[in-house]
Design brief:
Strand content of chain C: 15-25%
CATH topology of chain A: Tetracycline Repressor, domain 2
Radius of gyration of chain A: 18 Å
Largest sheet of chain C: 3 strands, antiparallel
Number of strands of chain C: 13
Helix content of chain A: over 70%
Order of helices and strands of chain A: HHHHHHHHHH
CATH class of chain C: Mainly Alpha
CATH topology of chain C: Cytochrome-c3 Hydrogenase, chain B
CATH class of chain A: Mainly Alpha
CATH architecture of chain C: Orthogonal Bundle
Chains: A mainly alpha, B alpha/beta, C alpha+beta
Radius of gyration of chain C: 21 Å
Number of domains of chain A: 1
Order of helices and strands of chain C: EEEHHHHHEEHHHEEEEEHHHEEEHHHH
Shape of chain A: elongated
Oligomer: heterotrimer
Largest sheet of chain A: none
Distance between the termini of chain A: 59 Å
Number of strands of chain A: 0
């Protein structure tokens, strides 16, 4: 087996840690439990991440980059504003289904344990890659006349709060139908709420 | 250049104007020095050799022809149409200075008759003015008005026989490569995205809400200060972009935004980079920048 | 005989059509301004606040007065829309300082670039250097810029106050500049200190003043023009001193009596762009002389008593105003209360539909800005400039203010010089 580079090794640690954090929660997960799951010594783990908080922060950056990269592709595509909404909803639910730990981490660790992120992730710094792409999506939507001009956060909250809420309901197994079966009506709702009048 | 150089002969002719550049020029405290080295064949206010009627009759040659004000073919000076006066004077001039945004791009007065009023070389950003073919000998000094030192700089350079490096609108790069933003006293508020919540304070950046165009307006306003002491932004007034072909835009005291995001971002900065940086900077709350600068008055 | 005289060295150009008798004496003088820029139309359709940027560009020499007039108009508009918009005494004082600076530099430029120059030409004298006057004007404009950011074309006054928030540094600098200006007025313009000057004003020995003002008066005497230039002797000030002065009586002015008469303008089939400004259907003089009469400034009122509205009185009123302003600006600077707010934010202008009027005493007299706005957008804008009052064009039997002053002059050259005692501004007149 080819030897992993330090960066690749880091990512493989993060992937495992992500699973633990999103199922056990931030405080239940410890550096020794992460090390054990990966099969490395705790001492060695500290060579990669100087603290649990640093690992948690790198994880949120990692997730924001994944989501940001996906939305960027959508932003740069020739799709209409409505089609972009469809694509973002689809992408978000797809990740929630295929890699539930990413969205779970965002909702259950990042948003629920703000005190952990206070010192290194003020405001939206760690999710900037993702928020920036949404800003661009909204800005372009208003500029071309498709979306109604309003405060960024009232639009952002409507869009992301909605998607996050659905993923949460799905995670709690409350939804009677599969998540993807809601895609169309949800993106219709978002579009109708945001479109220019 | 001869060892005892003759005085530069200058003609200063006005088109459709408010005289703002004339009065701005008179503010130069070293005007006396300048006048020792130039002779005005014609000037609207200063002592000169020919009066307006004589000027349009003789249409003399000049070292520098300065045009202030917008161009309209049938606008008359001393009963003669501009389309007969201007090209004739221009053809006999060694250098032409398009002084002010009206002469340079059409400016404010273009709005009264957009189809027929333009600058002498440029009509807004297009080189469609009556002197477009003479572009190589034209220096554009845009601004509403132009700072007197910008004009004396150009006159001094011509006197010294030095080439003036210019941008795509033929504005001297040494004056217009800067943005009005450069040297603004509120730069730190811009860096940390602290906006000014109201006019009339020393604190906060005017770019986020009050319409300041300094981050995308070319000019040395905060390098070569106005009246030697101040500038718009230093007195809490937003920059209105008066040196650009787009002047005057609309809604000049508010920043156009799309979902809270500025419609125009600092010149040359990709929107994505700008937004990423803004999001980061806004996340920090720098106490010093959120307080009054001098709190005795608060 | 009819002669067309092109008048330059004003802001823009004007044409005087003179009818003279056999001796060349002026029987009738028609005033025409040929240039028109359509400022009001440019303003219509814009956000009302844009007027604070566009309106100053009416005029390069008195644009600041246009700014203050527009700001006052907007404040009045808020008030009429139901939101009283008081500004702090600090904001008021700062606006006064900058406005008065503009008046001062205007008068000094007029004295040197226009009056001394043109009177000298008539007497075949070498043109004097105006450099010292331009230098001191640049200092006055610098004082203004300490608060307004720049001169010309500042937009630092907004409904609610001013954008600047000065410190004692600016105030101290301003006082220093002011003392330099005061020195110039004393040594160069008057040739004596202010007390001695006021004495000459009261005892009628103005012609003995050794300064450049004395020189101008002596030239007028040599040209036998001192007692010429009489007009109706009725005055109007609508800006800061509101009143009408007529036949020794002062009364309050009624803004409803102000009317613009465009019957001679091109759009009405006439041959000029300017529209006459009338009060109660009649011509009234506005400007420094009117302000002096309405505030009952002793020295000028005495001159007026003795000589009426002659060139002597009119010239003196303008120079005297510089002296009065110097003291006023110093007082304003010394009492400026920096701890007050510069600006009190009003409701967004987009919420407002109303009409407003703003009046200011500009260098040449009362300047009126009126506008109507719908949801913050200008639907109508109208400007009446001081020169529309003074340089209005009447008929042979009922001439305007400056027209009447020119009638009887023994040559068109002298009539043109009398015309200039009104401080002509073409760009303002037609705007």
């Amino acid at each position: 087996m080819a030897r992993l580079s330090k960066e690749e090794r880091k990512i493989s640690i993060m992937t495992k840690a992500l699973e633990l954090f999103s199922t056990e929660g931030f405080y239940q997960t410890t550096m020794p439990s992460i090390a054990e799951k990966i099969g490395m010594s705790v001492g060695n783990l500290y060579n990669y991440f100087t603290s649990k908080e640093m690992l948690a922060k790198d994880l949120i950056l990692y997730i924001a980059n994944i989501l940001g990269e996906e939305i960027r592709k959508i932003n740069e595509s020739p799709l209409s504003t409505k089609e972009k909404i469809d694509a973002i909803v689809h992408m978000y639910f797809k990740i929630a289904q295929e890699r539930p730990e990413t969205i779970e981490y965002f909702l259950r660790v990042y948003l629920s344990n703000r005190e952990v992120f206070q010192n290194c992730c003020e405001g939206m710094i760690c999710v900037s890659a993702f928020v920036t792409e949404l800003m661009i999506f909204f800005e372009e939507g208003v500029r071309c006349g498709d979306l109604r001009d309003q405060d960024f956060f009232s639009a952002f909250g409507l869009f992301m709060g909605y998607l996050g809420g659905m993923v949460f309901l799905n995670g709690e197994k409350i939804l009677p139908k599969s998540l993807e079966s809601y895609e169309l009506s949800i993106s219709d709702n978002i579009y109708h709420a945001l479109k220019s009048r | 250049m001869p060892s005892n150089p003759a005085k530069l002969k200058i003609i200063w002719l006005q088109g459709i104007t408010c005289n703002g550049n004339t009065h701005s020029f008179l503010n130069d405290p070293s005007l006396g020095r300048l006048l020792e080295s130039v002779e005005f064949i014609h000037h609207p206010l200063l002592a000169c050799t020919l009066n307006l009627s004589e000027l349009v009759e003789h249409l003399p040659a000049s070292d520098i022809l300065i045009i202030e004000g917008s161009y309209k073919a049938d606008f008359e000076r001393a009963y003669r149409r501009m389309d007969s006066v201007l090209p004739a004077l221009a053809a006999k001039a060694e250098h032409i200075v398009s002084l002010g945004s009206c002469a340079s791009f059409g400016g404010i007065f273009k709005e009264a008759d957009p189809e027929r009023i333009s600058g002498i070389v440029f009509d807004r950003e297009k080189a469609l003015g009556p002197l477009a073919e003479m572009m190589p000998k034209v220096i554009t000094l845009s601004g509403c008005p132009v700072h007197p030192k910008w004009l004396t700089f150009v006159i001094d350079m011509i006197r010294a026989g030095k080439a003036i490096s210019v941008d795509e609108f033929r504005r001297p790069k040494e004056l217009y490569a800067y943005l009005v933003h450069n040297g603004c006293l509120r730069n730190e508020y811009f860096e940390w995205k602290v906006d000014s919540d109201r006019f009339g304070t020393k604190e906060g950046c005017l770019f986020y809400a009050q319409g300041c165009q300094a981050p995308f307006t070319h000019g040395s306003c905060n390098k070569i200060l106005w009246n030697e002491v101040s500038s718009k932004t230093r007195s809490g007034t937003p920059c209105f972009g008066c040196t650009e072909p787009s002047f005057p835009k609309r809604e000049l005291f508010s920043t156009k935004t799309y979902m809270s995001i500025p419609a125009e971002v600092p010149l040359g900065v990709p929107k994505r980079s700008y937004l990423a940086l803004t999001g980061a900077a806004k996340s920090f709350h720098i106490k010093r920048l959120e307080e009054r600068l001098i709190d005795d008055n608060a | 005989m009819i002669t067309h005289e092109l008048i330059e060295r004003i802001e823009g150009e004007a044409v005087l059509d003179f009818r003279t008798d056999r001796e060349g004496r002026v029987e009738e003088a028609n005033i025409r301004f040929l240039h028109f820029r359509g400022m009001e139309a440019i303003l219509e359709g814009r956000n009302a606040l844009d007027a604070l940027v566009i309106a100053p560009r009416v005029c390069g020499i008195c644009g600041h007065s246009h700014l203050i007039a527009a700001a006052r108009m907007l404040e009045n508009l808020y008030q009429n829309g139901g939101e009283a918009l008081p500004i702090t005494s600090k904001a008021y004082a700062i606006r006064e300082i900058t406005r008065l600076c503009e008046v001062m530099q205007n008068h000094i430029k007029w004295l040197y670039l226009v009056m001394l120059h043109e009177s000298g030409k008539l007497l075949k004298l070498e043109p004097p250097s105006a450099l010292k006057a331009l230098y001191v004007s640049s200092k006055i404009n610098q004082l203004c810029a300490l608060f307004s950011g720049q001169w010309p074309h500042s937009s630092y006054a907004l409904p609610g106050g001013v954008t600047c928030d000065p410190t004692h540094i600016e105030v101290m600098q301003a006082l220093k500049i002011l003392s330099e200006v005061e020195g110039f007025v004393r040594e160069d313009i008057l040739g004596c200190d202010v007390q001695a000057y006021e004495y000459t004003l009261s005892d009628g020995s103005l012609l003995g003043l050794s300064g450049d003002f004395g020189t101008l008066l002596r030239r007028f005497e040599e040209l036998e023009l001192l007692e010429s230039g009489k007009s109706y002797g009725r005055y109007l000030a609508l800006g800061d001193e509101i009143g009408v002065w007529e036949k020794g009586e002062r009364s309050l002015a009624d803004l409803n009596l102000v009317r613009e008469d465009g019957s001679k303008s091109f759009d009405q089939g006439g041959n000029m762009y300017a529209k006459n400004a009338l009060y109660g259907g009649e011509f009234y003089e506005t400007g420094p002389l009117a302000r002096a009469m309405l505030t009952n400034r002793t020295g000028i009122a005495n001159l007026h008593n003795r000589y009426g509205d002659t060139a002597l009185t009119r010239l003196s009123a303008r120079v005297d105003e510089v002296v009065v302003i110097l003291a006023r600006v110093e007082e304003l600077l010394r009492t400026l209360e920096l701890s007050e707010a510069s600006f009190i934010p009003p409701e967004p202008i987009q919420t407002l539909s109303a009409e407003g009027v703003g009046i200011v005493e500009a260098p040449r007299g009362s300047l009126i800005h009126r506008a109507r706005i719908e949801k913050g957008k200008i639907t109508a804008y109208s400007i009446i400039t001081p020169t529309q009052w003074n340089l209005g064009n009447g008929t042979a039997t009922l001439p305007g203010i400056a027209q009447k002053a020119m009638i009887g002059a023994d040559s068109i050259a002298k009539a043109s010089l009398i015309f200039r005692t009104f401080d002509v501004c073409s760009v303002c007149t037609t705007h």
